[in-house]
Amino acid sequence: MTNDTIFALSTGLGKAGIAIIRVSGRDAFNIARKLTGISLIPRAATVCYLRFNQELIDQALVVFFKSGSSYTGEDLVEFHIHGGSAVISHLSNVLSTGFNVSVANPGEFTRRALENGRLDISQVEGLLDLINAETKEQKKQSLRVFSGQIGQKSKQWREKIIHSLSLAEIMIDFSDEDVPSSTISEIEALVKSLVAEFECEMAGSRSATLVRDGFDVTIVGQPNVGKSSLLNYLAGKEKAIVSEQAGTTRDIIELSIDLKGYRVNFYDTAGIHSTEDTLEKIGIDRALKKAALSHMRVFLLNPNDIVEDFGVVIEPSDLILCAKCDLQSHTKYSGVSSATGDGVGDMLSKILNNITKSSSYSSVLINERHKKITERTLVFLRLALEEIDLTEARIEIVAENLRLAILELDFLVGKINVEDVLGDIFSSFCIGK
User: Fold this and answer.
1) What is the mean pLDDT of residues 239-263?
2) Whether residue 265 is found in the same domain as residue 353
3) Which pLDDT band, with edges at 50, 70 and 90, does 177 fall under?
4) What is the dihedral of CA 138, 142, 143, 146, to 10 degrees?
5) How far is residue 325's CA from residue 336's CA, in Å, rounded to a whole number?
6) What is the CATH number of the domain that holds 85?
7) Could you give the CA distance from residue 285 to residue 206 in angstroms, rounded to a whole number?
8) What is the reported pTM?
9) pLDDT tens-digit series, residues 15-46
10) Are residues 263 and 238 part of one domain?
């Protein structure tokens, strides 16, 4: 890890009442002392003037954190200055040219926190999700991960695997001694309980992904049935082009909304009908594929439409609604109108009900990396069980699979070299984090 001192603006660009510039590294305290002319007390906010070469920069609130108890694990100083561009530019210029401090790379503060043991990799991912969270449920989930829940669970799983491995090692080292016959049964019980826990987390990972990425709802129907009008009503503005001409929508138009804390992604698609137009055929093909991949579909029907004719498999959770219910009605289905808003609230309530059912148990495994590591760990645990179930179980094979399971699990929180995933994670961070 580099010991270079770095700085960055950690608040948003543009005019504001307050801006925060962070400085982290071995020279951070000396820089703060020279700019303020005073010795700072750790973890205490001090209001003082900042000066460089007798020139006043600003009156600021300065907070100093000693190494070991700061966000990065290094000496870290925060300058809370006035948020005008001239003040920010002045202090930034002094730091870079007057003190030769490097501008931080994206995510460099957090990377130093990882390298100094202040965070593990899963917490870093949780922090990134927290920064990007747009809904209440996304925030709650990312806070759980950022607080270290994956690390806590990983530690519990690791302890169980290590205990199983130690029992296996006893059987190997003392094979000719008086090892209790129940030892292999104890190993089997521990590994079975681990497999059950991992399978439960894997089942819940779909819910976690749903909260993180959003619940996909595709609107399906014939041309001019009102799909785009419904999307525009939900958006509160004209997001999709609405026209009496059939086939206006040829590509997929997306709208994301916050529905009682959950992100819902609505997709307006091309109208499903027979056509010889090449572009329309492409649009219809995309519509059918999107509908098949979505968590839920909303079918909008004219009075004489038959939903089965659309060529989409209808799931029990799907909604079938009569379109433009202010102008027409369907004998079989309830209606919705984008002109009056009738039925929209009921439609959203049913969508929310589907989401809450689908996310009843949300795993700590919130992304594809977590799931792949868990899947690989499960493979070795299951191989250990398969060996135990043999009449002449080879305990050495059991022990080796348990060791491999531990190695895989350590990738979850970054206890071993994971340089290959770091670049991708930190490239998504903003500069001041």
Assistant:
1) 68
2) yes
3) low
4) -170
5) 5
6) 3.30.1360.120
7) 26
8) 0.68
9) 889 999 999 999 999 999 999 999 889 999 99
10) yes
